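Researcher: Excuse me, tokens okay?
***
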Amino acid sequence: MEAQRANYNASKEAKIATLLEKDALKRAQLQDELSALREELKTRRTNRIQQLSEAISIADSLGIRTPTSPSTMTAATHGGTQVIRTEVTNQETPLYFMGTEALIAERDALANRKSDDFVEPRIAEIQSELAMLKNNREVEILKEREGEDLYLANLAQLREEAARLKGIKLDTERLRLVRLDQPALESLKPVKPKKAMILALGLVLGGMLGVFIALVRSLMARSAEQ
């Protein structure tokens, strides 16, 4: 049972770590997307301001203060002559026909804008997703789970085995850890010292030493005679 609990706890911790890591990765990806969108919107606004400034310069040189169109300007140049003109074109009307008043107002509004987030709906979606990632409900449930034994694998078998082990009665009085085969007997002869062996070794070593001394004396005598 304890081993199963340890395995379950390890599995739960691994699952929590995996969920948190997944949330962290998702959060980082959303932050990157949000930064990229804001940078793109900022670039668009800067480009639009430059276009407006150029159009203001052109409109001012042409004397266009209020919104007009090419056909209106053409009719005005003919004086009192009544001209009926119909234009069919797929080309976009140049920006400077909006007039300096409208162009300056739009440029100033863009220049004073503090945030472009409201322009892109995706930014609101990203912010909503980031807010949801602040709390992982699955992780909270795993951490606050009670009665975790119910989630152990093979719980019924484990409980049955635990009950069986508890039912085993062990009589410690009859339990013998050591069995004596036969009693120890006292030796009739001393184990040490071995006198016969010592005597034999003494005779052998003494004889060898005597022979060695005799040889040495014989060699010394011969050397003296020479």
About this structure: The mean pLDDT is 81. Residues 1-78+91-155 form a domain with the Bacterial polysaccharide co-polymerase-like fold (CATH 3.30.1890.10). Helices lie at 2-62, 70-77, 100-111, 121-132, 137-143, 155-167, 195-225. The radius of gyration is 54 Å.
